[in-house]
Amino acid sequence: MARKSKSNLSELYLEENKDQIYENALAEIQSFELPLGTTISGAAAGSLPSKMAESLPEHDRILQEIESTDTACVGPTLRSVYDDQPNAHQKFMEKLDACIRNHDREIEKMCNFHHQGFVDAITELLKVRADAEKLKVQVTDTNRRLQDAGKEVIAQTEEIIRCRVQQRNITTVVEKLQLCLPVLEMYSKLKEQMSVKRYYSALKTMEQLENLYLPRVSQYRFCQIMMENLPKLREEIKEISMSDLKDFLESIRKHSDRIGETAMKQAQQQKTFSTALQKQNNVNYGRNMHLGRNRILESKNEITLKRTFEDEDEHDEEVLTAQDLVDFSPVYRCLHIYSVLGDGEIFENYYRKQRRKQARLVLQPQSSMHETVEGYRRYFSQIVGFFVVEDHILHVTQGLVTRTYTDELWNMALSKIIAVLRTHSSYCSDPDLVLELKNLIVVFADTLQGYGFPVNRLFDLLFEIRDQYNETLLKKWSGLFRDIFEADNYSPIPVANEEEYRIVISKFPFQDPELDKQSFPKKLPMSQSVPQIYMQVKEFIYASLKFSESLHRSSTEIDDMLRKSTNLLLTRTLSSCLQNLIKKPHIGLTELVQIIINTTHLEQACKYLEDFISNITNISQLTVHTARLYGLSTFKDARHAAEGEIYTKLNQKIDEFIQIADYDWTMSESDGRASGYLMDLINFLRSTFQVFTHLPHNNNDHAAMSGKVAQTACMSACQHLSMSLMQMLLDSELKQISMGAIQQFNLDVIQCELFASSEPVPGFQGDTLQLAFIDLRQLLDLFMVWDWSTYLADYGQATSKYLRVNPSTALTLLEK
């Protein structure tokens, strides 16, 4: 019966799942894409022995392949069912059903074979069930009795467990407290450090708390609170330190001028000390060579050096450094704090940015700085103070200020300083102020050079300022020269005795052996302005030398600078003053003659000026590159201008006399004597030419020069007089002239000829001066003798008696 039921179950299962099996097989078949004409027999032939596959029918072979092949590979086999005849599917299903029934029969046989063993096992299990019930009752009774006996033990055990739990908790609490106490102590220490403003130590304490102590007790809530407070404390420290840094920056901005002033004083003292020491060494060196002669000088230098040392010692007691004037602890503290916090770069950028801003403020001068030296001193002190602080920061910190940064900042500042000084110095018109500015720039440059900053461009600027200084000197000396010329009386210097004579020659290098032989009182040929001009030129050289000091230049360069500036004084300033003096209307002929004498003596003194420059610079004039003074050309030009002005003024004076001439051109006969105006004119010319005898002639050159000036003036005056008289006859407004007027005019010309023949100025050869009136003489002779036949007969011949008579002139006068 059981076997029948199993068989029925199998059949029922196959019946119920037949459609599902078929659908699965069909889906498996469709999932493969085999080429047309391909059969399953070829694909599965390899899985069966070739002889068996040939002997079995086709469907049996397929069923055998399905049973022996893996489920994943059954698709190709099932697909071959559809590759045969149209009814192959039905036949295959019938064959499949028959195969299933065979397997069901085999399963049923196997179940029937094992059924008896199953029944026997059930029977034995039922017997064991009764024994198990008895055993259960016995175990329950034993457990009850055991529980009753162990109640007291359980109670004691629970008490022991509770006590041990308490003991363990206490031990744990002690251990945790031992871990927490150091944390609390460190936190208390942190609070105390914050209260006393020990922020750097507080940061170190925070670092220990975070890295060493707090990780051990990180599970506690108070630890979390501490962890949350630490960043706030760091920010608080950063804010406080930054506030201190801002106060520090404000402090050094206020104290920069004091710091710079102190540093400049120290540099100046050091330079003074070095100079005194060098002089002492030079004295010691020269002592062996000139012991007796220099003993007094040595004692003076030793006293000076001793005083310098004493002053240096006194100043050493009062010397203050930048660190003494400014508390640098805020910047150190802030740097350490930001470095510990990992924001060192932020701090460096902030510090440099703020200092750059301060540098721009320091470099901005006041608008009135050029008015006083104090304005320049305050400006330089602030700049020096700024860079002294930066140099101090550079050497006491690492990385906050670098040499590259300071060099960049200095180059920027140097360009600004040079531009400011170039602008403001151009406003200075006082040479003393320019000189003080130069001294300040030198001290400023030496101070910063001592701190390692390059200052070559400042010394280059000094050369520009030197040119401006020379310009201010030239303006000042131009005024001095004008005052000297205005105050001069243009007369020879009288000396009553030997003392007065030595006073004059101590101021001016005058030498005249002939004059030395004369007895007192006597007169020097030059006027009072000559020694004054000479002394002022020397004062100008001294003033120029003051600017050249401390410029770190060689003696040759200083000598060259002095000669160039002196040349400018002579060729431009003094020459201009002389030219203006000569052109002034109140300067008469006597003054012009004295000016010629003065310029001659000044010209002779130029060689002494060259010696003077060589002595103060210790540079020989024989040096190849030594410049020469251009005073010779300056005074020659002035002398030529004076000579030309003499000629002009003489001619103007002659014109004035001619203008007062009052001829009666219709008179019947002459007065028998020359006109009064002409006699006055001749007397004036005689007295004037006598003045030329005072021109210097102490050597052949000057004698020739003075004679030439006098001769030229005399010849020019005679020629101008002759031309004026000729123009008077030929004046277009004069319509008629009588023979009496001609005779009177002839008398005046005769007086002119007599004046020319009297040799008013020595040196003329023969009748050279009389030739100035030859035109008038031949014209008047022609009319006086009325020798027209001879004139017309000899006209054009070199031997003609009336060769200088122009026909048009003769015709014009004949018509009148």
TrEMBL record:
<protein>
    <recommendedName>
        <fullName>Exocyst complex component</fullName>
    </recommendedName>
</protein>
<keyword id="KW-0268">Exocytosis</keyword>
<keyword id="KW-0813">Transport</keyword>
<comment type="function">
    <text>Component of the exocyst complex involved in the docking of exocytic vesicles with fusion sites on the plasma membrane.</text>
</comment>
<dbReference type="Pfam" id="PF04091">
    <property type="entry name" value="Sec15_C"/>
</dbReference>
<dbReference type="GO" id="GO:0006893">
    <property type="term" value="P:Golgi to plasma membrane transport"/>
</dbReference>
<dbReference type="InterPro" id="IPR007225">
    <property type="entry name" value="EXOC6/Sec15"/>
</dbReference>
<dbReference type="GO" id="GO:0006886">
    <property type="term" value="P:intracellular protein transport"/>
</dbReference>
<feature type="domain" description="Exocyst complex component EXOC6/Sec15 N-terminal">
    <location>
        <begin position="95"/>
        <end position="264"/>
    </location>
</feature>
<feature type="domain" description="Exocyst complex subunit EXOC6/Sec15 C-terminal">
    <location>
        <begin position="458"/>
        <end position="816"/>
    </location>
</feature>
<dbReference type="GO" id="GO:0000145">
    <property type="term" value="C:exocyst"/>
</dbReference>
<dbReference type="InterPro" id="IPR042044">
    <property type="entry name" value="EXOC6PINT-1/Sec15/Tip20_C_dom2"/>
</dbReference>
<dbReference type="InterPro" id="IPR048359">
    <property type="entry name" value="EXOC6_Sec15_N"/>
</dbReference>
<dbReference type="InterPro" id="IPR042045">
    <property type="entry name" value="EXOC6/Sec15_C_dom1"/>
</dbReference>
<dbReference type="GO" id="GO:0005886">
    <property type="term" value="C:plasma membrane"/>
</dbReference>
<dbReference type="Pfam" id="PF20651">
    <property type="entry name" value="EXOC6_Sec15_N"/>
</dbReference>
<dbReference type="InterPro" id="IPR046361">
    <property type="entry name" value="EXOC6/Sec15_C"/>
</dbReference>
<comment type="similarity">
    <text>Belongs to the SEC15 family.</text>
</comment>
<dbReference type="GO" id="GO:0090522">
    <property type="term" value="P:vesicle tethering involved in exocytosis"/>
</dbReference>
